[in-house]
Amino acid sequence: MEGLPAGSLRLSRITKKMGEFQLRDISLEVFPGEYFVILGPTGAGKTVLLEVIAGMHAADAGEIWLGEENITAWPPEKRRFGFVYQDYALFPHLNARENIVFGLKNRKLSPGEINRELEAVVSLLGITHLLGRLPYTLSGGEQQRVALARALVMKPGVLLLDEPLSALDPCTKETLQQELKRLHRLTGAMIIHVTHDFDEALYLGDRIGVLMGGSLLQVGSPEEIFTRPRGEAVARFVGAENIYHSEIILHGGRKYVSLGGALLQVETDLTGRAGFSVRPEHVLVSSSPQPENCLPGKVLAVYPRGLLTRVIIDAGERLVALVVAREDRGVSLVPGSTIYSIIPPAAINVFYPPP
Amino acid sequence: MGARLFKTLNLLVTTLVALFILAAVSTVLVRGLPYIPASLKAPELIFAVKLSLITSIISTTACLLAAMPVAYALARYNLPGLGVAANLLRIPLTLPPVVSGVCLLLLFGTTTFGTTLARMGLRFVFTVPGIILAQFFVNLPSLITVLKAAIESVDIRLEYVARTLGYTPARAFQKVTLPLIRNNILAGLVLTWGKALGEFGAVLMLAGATRFKTETLPISLYLNMATGDMEALMSSAAILILIAVVSLAVFERAGVKPYERVPGL
Fold first, then answer.
1. pTM, rounded to two decimals
2. Which of A43, A121, A136, B41 is 20 to 30 Å from the Cα of A278, by its Cα?
3. Which CATH architecture has domain A9-232?
4. How many CA atoms does the CB half-sphere of B213 hold within 13 Å?
5. ipTM of the complex, rounded to two decimals
6. What is the pLDDT, as a whole number, of residue A329?
């Protein structure tokens, strides 16, 4: 099955107030064939953003373009973006088959053509055996597949997925993640997928946009969002637990930040007052002092996590390290013991603090 | 109060109320039923039954046609002024039907609007169309309320999804929401029809009580009561009760599909 080629989808300064949700000045370009993930906590306005993209709500301000067309004023039935809701929103009075062909029925297609399209999408998703069943008899994963089939059978240029995996158990979730990746490869559709789950975003997204408090705070590759969050809120949300503020100090042609009285060398173009974040897994621990970027400290608490161990250290400031249990040979990981934390310059992500 | 005493008291009151209703209704039925065959040959009662059926069916249909768009607007559109409109639409629901009848009588009998309509041939005062109008006016708000609640119970996102699949709002309503509220519509229609059949106060005020002209079953009952014709009175009352019981049965049997029991839909 081939997706219709579409131009890129561009949101330009979209603003929308809806009850308690507000989207502020969202500008974004998603490219044909791209798997774009909008990542954000609950209440960030993710669903409203998707519904604005689909045309269900008109934006208060801003424009939406698809390729060369300004589609800002187009109703959903003209945009025809596929939409899959978190709880799938299958039509409860129709069986799986009727749900899937619902959109085709509105076109002037012959029964033969409808059946051909149905066959194709049903075999793609492996749901032939479910066709006669009513939605309420289907499991979450099965409903999800039917909802995907209902959207995909229309060959939408843009497919919008609203938290499609969050209502599923972990095992089904993993299977369906792979499924989504496969479907994306096969259909070549532009997918915009909304989630609050960082792992899901990392696995699926070609690019990720972080939406918090109705604002798009950062757009970038998963790697970039993961290691170079551009601000405290994003850093915290993607799990960089060690977040501090410092003056950037220029000394001997190198730049440093201060943490708990020690100076740490950083690689940054920024100057002046800045924030910086360090992911716990990038903190190394040692029993003896090291020459570079080393902080003395005291172990406050140790939480074994299977292969990994979470260590809370008092290094003048609270510092969290995630160390591989086997690699801590010679390091005494008991509360009260002295420890040296090493943070390589490349692991320190420097950003401007919010104004 | 002990748990047993509490339960016993509740059940006792329930039983007493049920017996009270049964006694009141069955007294009329027991006395009226034997008269029905004979009175069904009486031209006056035949007229009343026919007129009641015709007017109630027309007014119920009119109620449905008017209530559906209103209910949809109230349930789905988020516009300023709709809240005020919703309260305005509820007024006839709270008025005594007799007062509704007076309102209609004055509007159609004394105002320029009414006299203009009358000159165009649309006469509602002391006419059969007046019966229909009175039933329509009194029953419309409750049908709107029933349909509004039904439409609100259907997740608006189902209509959204239909639209992303190429359906216009009207088609999405027709293909998704309408089938999902089919039983609510049926129930609303049966209730409306039953109330239209029994409507007395508003009909009396607007259409009057003229034998063989605006004589519906309740009006007939009233006229026969006034003239002391107990035989005719009993049979029209019994017929009204029978119709009510049958429509209640239909209402109860309006099948509920399994998916309608799924919470959250």
1. 0.84
2. A43
3. 3-Layer(aba) Sandwich (3.40)
4. 11
5. 0.84
6. 59
